[in-house]
Structure formats: structure tokens, C-alpha cells
Amino acid sequence: MKKLLVMGLAGTVLLAGCSPKVVGDPCKDKNATLSNYLMEKCYGHYLRQIEINKENIEKLNTRVANLENNISTLRGDVGELKDDVAKLKITGREQVRVYFNTNRFYLREDAKAALDELIEAVRDKDIKKVIVVGYADPRGTRGYNFELSMKRAQNVAAYLIKNGIPVEKIRITSYGEELAKLIGQNYPEQRAVDVIILY
Fold first, then answer.
1. Can you give the residue range of the structural domain that contains 79?
2. What percent of the chain has pLDDT above 70?
3. Is residue 103 part of a domain?
4. What angle do CA 160, 166, 172 make, to 5 degrees?
5. What does the alpha-carbon distance between residue 46 and residue 54 come to, in Å, rounded to a whole number?
6. 84 and 98 part of one domain
């Protein structure tokens, strides 16, 4: 019995002497050899983040390149627009509004006089465009008012052409009653045609 006890104690001492040295966190141990396993364990998240950062940088570089191309294209477009505007050389405009009787599209004498003054004012100008816009007061159906305002605009355009304004410069449009309240507060003011000459 004594012999077994002594042997047991000796074995315990022997095993204690052979047990491996306990090392702390190998990632913090400057002397630890960093195997692939330890590299992944200790620095794997850093390495993955570096790869993600590289991908993000590549994406940003691509976006910057695209933006630079877009800016270059826009500069070209702006340059072309400036050239187009320079070619137009619009230096001014003349404008007049003429009025009509209820349910009528024939020119009154005061309308003809106003148009004559406008034509005279632009006679020596290099006309770029003539805009003729018809309106109607809100009485009657929408379709009727649209047709009536178009006829008013067409009659004004015909008068301009008859008096020397080039037909190819004229653009006619009609709003019927849609803009009536914007051009006047009462019916006589809303039965009108605007003429705008750009030169």
C-alpha cells in the first residue's frame, strides 16, 4: 500500500514536470510563430476588410471615371448650346395683345392698329420667331372655346403674313379658356391673342 502511494505521488510529480508550458493569447505573443491558421485567426478580419476596401476603391474609381466622362459630355453639350444661342442672336422682342368681341374671331379696328404698330416696330429687324397665342373667356364648352381661340390666333397670323411677316417664322398655339384667369379678371380681357416677336 505504501509502495502504491509512493508510485502515485511520483507519477503525479512526473506528469506535472512534463506538462506543456501554458502560453497566453498567441495573437499577442510576439514570439509566437504565425501559421496560416494563426494569421486567419488573429488577422483574418483585417485582411477581409482590406479586400473589401480594395473593392470599394475600385468601385469609386469607376464612378469617378464615369462622372468625369459625364462632365466632359455635359461641357460639350453646354458648348453646343452656347453656339446655338450665339447663332440665334436674339437681341430683343416686341409684344402686343389684341382683343376680340364675344364669340367672334374677326379682327377689330383697334386690333389691326395695334398689329400695324408692332409690324412697323420690327420691319427692319432680323426676326427669329413669331409666337401667336389665342385665348377665350370661360363661357361655352371647352371644345368650343379652344376652337374659337385657335381661329383668333390664325386670323392674327394671317394678318401678320399679309403685312410682311415671314410665314415660316410664325408659330401658332391656342389655350382656349385654360389660361383665361391668368390673362385677365373679366371676360373682355380674356378674349385675346398675344403676339410675341423675337429678333
1. 25-88
2. 74
3. yes
4. 60
5. 12
6. no
Residue 132's CB is within 10 A of a number of other CB atoms, namely: 24
The three grid cell numbers given for residue 183, joined into one nine-digit string: 390673362
pTM (predicted TM-score): 0.55
- CA–CA gap between residue 132 and residue 97 (Å, rounded): 10
Instruction: List the chain residues with pLDDT less than 70.
Output: 1-41, 43, 85-91
Rounded Cα gap, residues 117 and 97, in angstroms: 12
pLDDT digits (tens, 9 = 90+) for 107-125: 999 999 999 999 999 988 8
Return the CATH number at 149: 3.30.1330.60
Assess contact for 105 and 152: CB atoms under 8 A: yes
φ/ψ region of 89 (left if φ > 0, alpha if ψ in -120 to 50, else beta) reads: left
